[in-house]
Amino acid sequence: TWGLFFEAAFFSAVLLQTNNKMIHRSLILLCTLAIIAFVSGGSTANEYKEKDIVPVLVNNVGPFHNPAESYSYYSLFPFCQVKAKEEGEGNLGEVLAGDRRELSLYETFFKIESPWRTACHATLTQDDIKAFRDAVQDHYIFEMFVDDLPVKGFIGEMEESVTHFGSHEHNETHFYLFTHLDFSIAYNGNHVIAVNLTTDPQKRIELTYGKNIEASFSYSTHFIETDIPWIDRYTLHSKSLIGEQAVQIHWLSIINSFVLVILLVAFLAVILMRILKKDFARSIELDDEEIDAEDAQDEVGWKLVHGDVFRFPSHIMLFSSFIGTGSQIFALVGSILILSLVGTFYPGNRGGLYSAAVILYALTAGIAGYVSTRLYMSLGGTKWMTNAVMTALVFAVPFLGIFVVLNLIAWYYGSSTALPLSYICVIILLWALVTFPLTILGAIRGRASAQPFDAPCKTNRVESVIPAIPWYRHSILQLLIAGFLPFSAIYIELHYIFAAVWGHRVYTLFGILSVAFVMLVLVTAFITIALTYFQLAAGDYRWWWRSFLSGCATGVFMYCYAVFYYYYRSEMNGVLQGAFFFGYTLMIAYGFALMLGSIAYFMACNFVRYIYRFIKID
Q1: Predicted structure pTM score
Q2: Are 584 and 406 in contact (CB under 8 A)?
Q3: Fewer CB within 10 Å: N-end or C-end of the chain?
Q4: Degrees, nearest 5: CA angle 426-428-430
Q5: Is residue 483 within 8 Å of residue 553, measured between CB atoms?
Q6: How confident is the model over 374-423, as pLDDT tens digits?
Q7: Nearest to 594, CA basis, from 533, 524, 543, 531
Q8: Each residue of 155-204: pLDDT tens digit?
Q9: Where are the alpha helices (DSSP H) in 55-161?
């Protein structure tokens, strides 16, 4: 799959220079096949004969409330491991997800019942007892994979006891370590369909200080036949995590977004009718008295700035870089949603999402270079190569800076979420050999196809004075409105995404997520057009950056909600978890801000061109 990916990147670089549409379509198909092959490798059905070993891999342990704070399984259970424990580092996605799968002492034989087997014996020293007590107190859970199906369980539990001494009470906390695991495996024919892992509360040892403890770790295995086919096993495995009420809440969120879109479309239609009303009145020779004073005042306002409305914005290189990068992220997100709809991502392949994000970001770099340079040249820019380099760095540099800091923190804590040096080198090579060259090649194409900006109106040499505006038309208030309305269309879905990414829920409702994303884009586009019209009607012609920032405002609201979620909707805590949550959420919000900002700009630009091209200027 790595070879196929690099072949796709190579042909992307070569064929990007051609003008043949058929070649471009073949390029898209090739890249798509490379991505699907890369992220969905290993999803084939494993067939077992009776008495064949069903592999049980241990992954990691960590606090239940801090998913990012995960550690290698054998860092807590060093005495129960096989000698040749390394199962392999795994693919890029698994490593990015923090998975460190290793072989275990738990042997399960297909269709063979095993009511009791001893995995290992161990002597718990005082240090071991302290480590386990701290882990139980922090609600540590462990994760294993049985035939690529993830299963989890708590390593122990706490109990409170009250002892009465006359009128006094003494509260004491007892710490227990579970020593027995029960595997219930459902099968159909020669395939494993589902796995359920439970700990036996009757088989536990109390963790008390004072002397070493002899512990015996055991397990049992049960096989249950089912008629569910293998193709539906991931749906069955995650079904218990998705209740009927949750699905209804998802659909209520979609209905809420849909109603909001309908209202905004109707609102936009009313605005366009107001814009065209005066010209319609002229064409049918109606009296000017039929046009109310308020309409006339607004129309005069936006018509008066026709000599300044197409005055180019300041800092066109930075502006173009933001627009190009936002277009790339839009293509990336759209591609990920398409892959999710075709079933590429499933509970046993959670690393596939991370792999897809990395590979798609590399392969869509040409979009950023093309859009950015084409816009930059049309706005009169001359340093197109510098613009291309800035486009390649405007998202990568902040992300790299945050990643380095977070990875150093993870290394310091010994967490399995720390990326190994070998994979850091792989990602750097991907950026240097694929992302950056494709950005430059896209910039070359953008420079070759760039045309002077098509402005329907001539721009005056002297800038007009922007009149004073009332408080309710202030830019800050408009940005708040521009961010709040799109955010209100997705905040319920955003809650479930946070619960999946920063929790232990399994998110599989990708169809609903795709609909929510479409709603987000539509609401952002419509509200930007409406606010741009109000801005021009007030005599403020600086719509370029304002339209972009209107889209970016939703990203700010997303990050503010993340802060609210961390403190009031979750029980996450600690330096490591807090750093990972706020660091990576900041970059996601930044990426969405760029994406929605670019969408808002393109919609505002088309709207402004439209009204000044088809409406006569007095």
Answers
A1: 0.87
A2: yes
A3: C
A4: 70
A5: yes
A6: 999 999 999 999 999 999 999 999 999 999 999 999 999 999 999 988 88
A7: 524
A8: 999 998 877 666 677 788 899 999 999 999 999 989 999 898 999 888 89
A9: 73-76, 92-96, 126-137
